[in-house]
Amino acid sequence: MTNILDRSKSQPESKSQPQSQSQSQAQSESQSADILITANRLDDGSVVWLADDLQWRQERHHAGHFDKVARRRALAKASHSEAANEVTAIYEIPIDGKADVSARERIRALGGPSIVPPKDLNPT
Amino acid sequence: MYKYDKLDRDFVTSRSAQFRDQVNRRLSGELSEDEFKPLRLQNGLYLQLHAYMLRVAIPYGVLSGAQLRGLAGIARDFDRGFGHFTTRQNIQFNWIKLVETPDILDRLASLDMHAIQTSGNCIRNVTSDPFAGAAADELEDPRGWCEIIRQWSTLHPEFAFLPRKFKIAVSAGAVDRAATGFHDIGLRLTKSISGEIGFRVLVGGGQGRTPRVAQQLSRFLPKRHLLSYLEAILRVYNAAGRRDNIYKARIKILVEAMGIDAFRDAVNNEWLLIKDSAIELPQHEQDRILAQFSPPALPESAGNKGQTRR
Questions:
Q1: What is the C-alpha to C-alpha distance for residues B230 and B152, in angstroms, rounded to an integer?
Q2: Pick from B37, B76, B97: which is nearest to A124 by CB?
Q3: B142: cis peptide before it, omega within 30°?
Q4: CB-nearest partner of A43 from B29, B41, B98
Q5: Which of B75, B117, B139, B310 is 20 to 30 Å from the Cα of B301, by its Cα?
Q6: How confident is the model at residue A93 (pLDDT cuts 50, 70, 90)?
Q7: Average pLDDT of the segment spanning A97-114
């Protein structure tokens, strides 16, 4: 099975997509901490989290917490989803009180934008 | 502003069709993400924090009314109703769907616009003074030279996979409003003692985590040698720039490591091999492109007499 955490350390696409600082820092800790698994849907780029039922969900509060036992099955599901071209850019987030609550992950969970849009904006 | 001819239109349209095919191959799994990533990046498409982001070039900061409306339409039809204008004369759409990107590129092509080389480790869109063409202090309109560089660098096969992204800015004003000192290559139009207009060439500037002010590579480069000289700089960088560390890969790091004098020697050695060769821009092409940026013929009236002349 592909080591998803190692893959997440690959070069970022831009400065606005830093290698999740929490990821390198938490690499060793992640072996013991429970994890969340997140990705982007391939076709539309939506941020998704893997839920306890191993379905990809768009709401962070549905993200599953995978312990040492559940992790193997969850990562296998994630790799399978990637191979099936459903998701891409998968990475793990250790639930360690640092990585999972980082500014990056909080902004990502809110869906953006991280600015206050003009009041007259009426997105379709 | 630069007006597309049939060649330009055919080019951006065919590029869009090519990307549509690449997207289809990615979605079907024929292309892996590793294979697809450099292709989408060279078409301005990132995968970022929230979703895909598409960066569209706004050449030299000038848009027609139709183009601005077209961009608004893209924001409305494919994104959340707004975009983000950047400091390097682009607009970014931050919630783009991969499956819809080819349609957006088609829409851009119909507006004489594109997203080619707005990302990736290639020569990015060339930027200029936001007042280019209207500034009283400029020696001449720098946008024609930006366009010449764009046409030379677009899909240049030798420079499609540089160690890192590469940014060029051109300024012609007495005041540098294009931040040429903070670009990989900065070009400042200047006058020689004899009155000839050419370029002062700066190299190795940049911001980010290792901010550096560009150093002077050439005090005066005659205009006719611009492309061969740029090619020589890029060749030295392409061969000697670091590829082992993303944070050490920009040309500013190479210039600093070699020292400006050794870097200049390396460029000059490379330049001697190609100077005055076929890479030099033919005069008629130079004239054709620069003419696109000639000021409009305005009738003189009592109110504006003399004011429309630089």
A1: 10
A2: B76
A3: no
A4: B98
A5: B139
A6: very high
A7: 91
Instruction: Assess: ipTM above 0.85.
Output: no
Of A45, A84, A85, the CB nearest to B52: A45
Distance CA A44, CA B74 (A): 16
Cβ of residue B243 closer than 8 Å to a chain A Cβ: no
What distance in Å separates residue B277's CA from the closest CA in chain A?
Answer: 37
For residue A28, give how far its alpha carbon lies from the nearest alpha carbon of chain B (Å). 22
- Cβ B94–A113 below 8 Å, yes or no? yes
Maximum Cα–Cα distance across chain B: 67
- Does A122 map to a domain? no
Report the alpha-carbon distance of residue B60 to residue B221 in Å, rounded. Answer: 22
Query: A29: domain range?
Result: 4-109
Q: What is the mean pLDDT of residues B141-145?
A: 95
Task: Classify residue A120: in a domain, yes or no.
Answer: no
Burial B110-143 (b: 16+ CB within 10 A, else e): ebbbbbbbbbbbbbbbbbbbeebbebeebbbbbb
* Number of structural domains in chain A: 1
The answer to whether residue A90 is domain-embedded is: yes
Tell me the sheet residues that pair with A39.
A48
Query: Rounded to an integer, what distance in angstroms lies between the CA atom of residue A3 and that of residue B193?
Result: 63
Report A:54-113 residues touching B (Cβ under 8 A): 82-85, 88-89, 104, 107-108, 111-113
Of residues B93, B81, B39, B28, the one with CA closest to residue A42 = B28
Please report the domains of chain B, with CATH numbers, ordered by start residue.
6-110 (3.30.70), 127-291 (3.30.413.10)
A86 to chain B: closest CA residue? B27
Strand, helix or coil for residue A83: helix
Hey, is the C-beta of B26 within 8 angstroms of any chain A C-beta?
Answer: yes
Is A62 inside any structural domain?
A: yes
